[in-house]
């Protein structure tokens, strides 16, 4: 009887030790895996933001369509202006601009802006425009993530949720908006379910989006990520 009792105590002790170990290690292991997935998702969201900002720069709006965004990165070119020389404060005060300066052709015209030697001025003031691919400009020649830009890492093919909107200021100025996001339940799927539930509840309690997100279609936030 004593042997049986001792055996039960040993088993119970081992079980309790396992429970204690598990209660300590489960959140630690979860957070380690979460950090890896967070970093991958955040990098993808940063790439989306970078492309969207350039798209808006060229077209004056964002796009809610990934095919359009990827096609833009692959095929579009953007102007790059190489500048030589700057206008002085005095010249700017007299109304001289880059476009006007490049069209100056007579000493009389130049004199209006305080330019005494037009030939010397034009030799040191140039604006050359060249065109560079969006892909190379934003991501470099070795970027390999374009085909997966729309997809959330660790999900086997789930796309980011992406949308566009518009914010109207008091002066009736319309500001284009966009957001791209993915919930914890999507990209953390496969990790400890209770830890994911806890994470979602914490976000809901704080009134935050229960996942990772960049931009916002309801308010202008300068395309900030909710991890920043």
Structure in a nutshell:
With 228 residues, the chain is an alpha+beta fold.
Q: How would you characterize the overall build of this protein?
A:
This protein has 228 residues and is an alpha+beta fold. It has nine helices and five strands, in the order H-H-E-H-H-H-H-E-H-E-E-H-H-E. The chain has helices at residues 2-59, 66-75, 89-93, 98-103, 107-111, 118-123, 134-139, 184-187, 193-205, and strands at residues 77-84, 126-133, 161-168, 174-183, 211-215. The strands form two sheets. It has a three-stranded antiparallel β-sheet with strand order 3-4-5. Strands 1-2 form a two-stranded antiparallel ribbon. A hairpin with a 5-residue loop joins strand 3 and strand 4. It is elongated, with a radius of gyration of 29 Å.
How would you summarize the topology of this molecule?
Elements: H1 2-59, H2 66-75, E1 77-84, H3 89-93, H4 98-103, H5 107-111, H6 118-123, E2 126-133, H7 134-139, E3 161-168, E4 174-183, H8 184-187, H9 193-205, E5 211-215
Antiparallel strand pairs: 1-2, 3-4, 4-5
Identify low-pLDDT runs.
none
User: What's the N-to-C terminus distance?
Assistant: 63 Å
Helix count? 9
| SSE sequence, one letter per element | HHEHHHHEHEEHHE
């Amino acid at each position: 009887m004593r042997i049986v009792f001792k055996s039960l105590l040993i088993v119970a002790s081992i079980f309790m030790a396992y429970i204690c170990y598990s209660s300590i290690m489960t959140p630690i292991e979860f957070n380690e895996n979460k950090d890896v997935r967070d970093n991958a998702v955040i990098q993808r969201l940063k790439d989306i933001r970078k492309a969207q900002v350039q798209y808006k720069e060229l077209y004056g709006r964002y796009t809610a369509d990934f095919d359009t965004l990827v096609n833009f990165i692959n095929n579009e070119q953007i102007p790059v202006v190489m500048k030589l020389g700057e206008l002085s404060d005095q010249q700017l005060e007299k109304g001289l601009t880059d476009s006007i300066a490049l069209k100056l052709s007579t000493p009389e015209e130049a004199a209006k802006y305080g330019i005494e030697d037009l030939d010397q001025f034009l030799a040191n003031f140039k604006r050359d425009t060249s065109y560079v691919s969006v892909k190379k400009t934003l991501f470099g020649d070795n970027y390999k993530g374009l085909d997966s830009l729309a997809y959330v890492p660790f999900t086997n093919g789930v796309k980011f949720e992406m949308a566009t909107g518009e914010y109207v200021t008091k002066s009736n100025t319309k500001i284009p908006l966009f957001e791209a996001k993915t919930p914890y339940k999507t990209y953390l799927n496969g990790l400890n379910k209770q830890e994911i539930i806890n994470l979602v509840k914490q976000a809901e309690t704080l009134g935050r989006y229960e996942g990772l997100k960049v931009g916002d279609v309801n308010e202008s936030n300068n395309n900030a990520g909710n991890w920043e």
